[in-house]
Amino acid sequence: MAKFLYVYHGSGKMPTDEAERQAAMDAWNGWYGKLGSAVVDGGNPVGMSKTVLPGGKVENNGGSNPTAGYTIIEANDIDDAVAKAKDCPILKDPGFSVEIAPIIEMG
């Protein structure tokens, strides 16, 4: 099995209401449960990023498509990884997307 990186993109706020926060966690846990042993690293959300450009210029706030978090999974191929991502709870918000990239083992 190959490993794939899911990079979640979009900007949004974590729910502040406890019931909404719990519902979001339940949705993620349910999705991870469906993925089962395919989840290699459940990942985490990430904070606001900075991007270093050639010449040392720094962009704040992640640019036009900020990273929101990541997960690493195992799948048969990229099409299998794409199929697994389609049920990701982050996709319920139209401002978010999941980028999928194969992890290339070096060595």
From TrEMBL:
InterPro entries: Dimeric_a/b-barrel. It comes from the Bacteria. This is Uncharacterized conserved protein. It comes from Mesorhizobium muleiense.
